[in-house]
Amino acid sequence: MGAWLITGCSSGLGRALAETLLEKGHDVAATARNPEKLADLVEAHPEHAAAFALDVTDRASIDEAVALATERFGAIDVLVNNAGYCLRGAVEECTPEEIQAQFDTNFFGPVALIQRVLPAMRAARKGAIVNYSSIAALNTSAGSAFYGASKAAIEAMSDGLRDEVSPLGIKVMIVEPGPFATDFYNRSLNVNENDISDYAATAGARKVRQEEPGKGASGWGSTKGAAEAVISAIESEEPPLRLLLGATAIASAERLIATKQGEIETWRETILISDK
What we know:
Rossmann fold
């Protein structure tokens, strides 16, 4: 599908997606706050890879990265909003500044990128936008409420966006990964330091970093497999609106569906009172 611009390529799922695309001969504008971490990608694939600095919370940085990628490859055919992190802490513990920063990176940054690339995609009547969410948008654990909220927001926005741009030939897909053996659970955690003892057993228990989570363990997905699945789905004629990644993600989605159906049946008579 032409040239891909991917955020958050320095490691994890974003890095694996960039590597897999380049192996397949696609053009990739790989971005990170520190593009020096992407030098090996460019060196290995000089004809198809370019690395650009991009801070998704900085509008000027967004404008410059999109302009440079467009200049290099002629157009951005696929935008992948992958960059993000997780704020860990109870709702009561987290500060307004921490909450704002979480949404700036996980929601407002992707929105700004989407708004930046859409004019060219509309003019071409083609393109694709891939927004990485999380199973936290399906079942948010204690201590990750604001992370889950930011991902739920990106999903709700994507729902409406798809209806708006599908008639214009532009695809929209949400990716809902389960756990993967990456450094997300170490490098990509921002752990709140305001410890309230009443939350020690719930949110407090999740204020930990993991050095190498899931290495070789069951239920932790392959980043290479995830990349292959995303590419296959978005290149299909009719991509799913929500692409689950991994067995844990499927289990989370099925649990959510079962819980909602159970609540509907339990409360059906009460619910229907509103119709009377």
